[in-house]
Amino acid sequence: MSEFHFAAAGLTLLASFIGTLALRRYALARQIIDTPNARSSHTVPTPRGGGVAIVLAYLAALIFWQLHAGLASGLFWSLLLGGGLIAVLGFWDDHAPLPARVRFAFHLLAAVLAVLLLGGWPQLDLGALILHWGWLGHLCGVLLLAWAINFYNFMDGIDGLAASQAVFVAGAGGVLMALSGGDGMPLWLLAAASCGFLLLNWPPARIFMGDAGSGFLGYALAVHALHATTSGQTTLWPWLILLAVFIVDATLTLLRRAAHGIRVTEAHRTHAYQWASRRAGAHRPVTLAILVTNLLVLLPAALSALAWPGLALPVCLTSFAVLVGVAWYFDAGVPESERIECAATGKQKAS
Fold first, then answer.
1. N or C, fewer C-beta in 10 Å, the chain?
2. Taking the model in full, what pTM does it have?
3. Which residues cross the membrane (predicted)?
4. Mean of the per-residue pLDDT values for the chain?
């Protein structure tokens, strides 16, 4: 990166930080506050909606970079139009909660728009062979983007987690692109915007991200991953590895809750990271542990998958298998009532 690149990233970070400060004042003045309840992972009333600063700082930086260096048309417009739609929807939902079916309908709309702008997803590189899957690939692309919007929202439940994950995935993703001969700067700008917000969201958080920020980040990271995949710059597997902590925890939690007959749209605090934060008695140890796992385990795995495409799928599956074991250990998706019952039974046996 040149001095110009560093300056652009630094200004993006600064804009996001100042915007987050302004949004915190706005949220306090309008009483847009997350008040702790039985399904919360926090204990102190905290203003929310600060993720809008990430969106505004990043989209402004993206427009600047488009004018300066140029971006692939599909990538630029899918981030600007689809990302803007997701952010507006989330901002609305932060102020006046919308029905789940309405939110999901707009998520699908943004996902369809992105897949169309990116030219679809006609083939999947499996390492040993390339699968030409036609319309099925387009459908999988839509579902992947819609799920990314939602799982990122689900994982925004403790201080610093969603923002630090965005800094990691966007920063590492920029490295993947640079090593593949592409432009990593659009992703590094996203990392910088996320870092500006993280300065005020690090535990103990002074402001929460809100749906506008979490939905946008999930969408933006997935769009970058899909663009890198469909353009042939990388395969999908390194990106899945970088996002593996969020994908595994959110997916396993959803499946186990569904298996218990619980409505999947019902609010809860039974993700593995939420159980882990309650065991630790604080958010910071869990956020730090996930960040260390990302840097020391998943980043080397993603770089290996990039360097040896033939091994990419086995490396990805191994990474997911390990994380499934960790999430299972931390009771991802186990209802609180069942945990309480098991704890009470254990005490009775011990006595």
1. C
2. 0.93
3. 6-28, 49-68, 74-92, 104-124, 130-149, 161-179, 185-202, 214-230, 236-255, 286-305, 311-330
4. 92
